[in-house]
Amino acid sequence: MKIYMSDIRKAKMCSGGTRAFFLRQGWDWQDFLKNGRDAQDFINTKDAMALQVVEVARNGKK
Fold first, then answer.
1. What is the C-alpha separation between 46 and 43, in angstroms, rounded?
2. What is the per-residue pLDDT for 28?
3. Strands 2-3 and 37-38
4. Whole-number pLDDT of residue 60
5. Do 47 and 55 form a contact (C-beta atoms < 8 A)?
6. Cα end-to-end distance, the chain, whole Å
């Protein structure tokens, strides 16, 4: 499963905070915007907000 910016927005999270999170992880922001990112990458961070985004993506809503 992939996570997209639309999932970030459904989880009611902002792009600025998400971009900062990506920077901390060493992830490519532009690639994410174009192609999404594997949900397992978010899960592997064990970050509560990242896990929330995965849950929203799985269930379609918060």
1. 6
2. 97
3. antiparallel
4. 77
5. no
6. 17
Q: Is the dihedral of CA 50, 55, 56, 57 positive or negative?
A: positive
State the Cα–Cα distance between residues 45 and 50, nearest whole angstrom: 7
Q: What tokens appear for 7 in the block?
A: 């999932």
Q: Which residue numbers in the chain have pLDDT < 50?
A: none
Burial of 35 (0-12, 13-18, 19+ CB in 10 A): exposed
Q: Whats the size of the chain, residue-wise? A: 62
Q: How far apart are CA 14 and CA 44, in angstroms?
A: 21
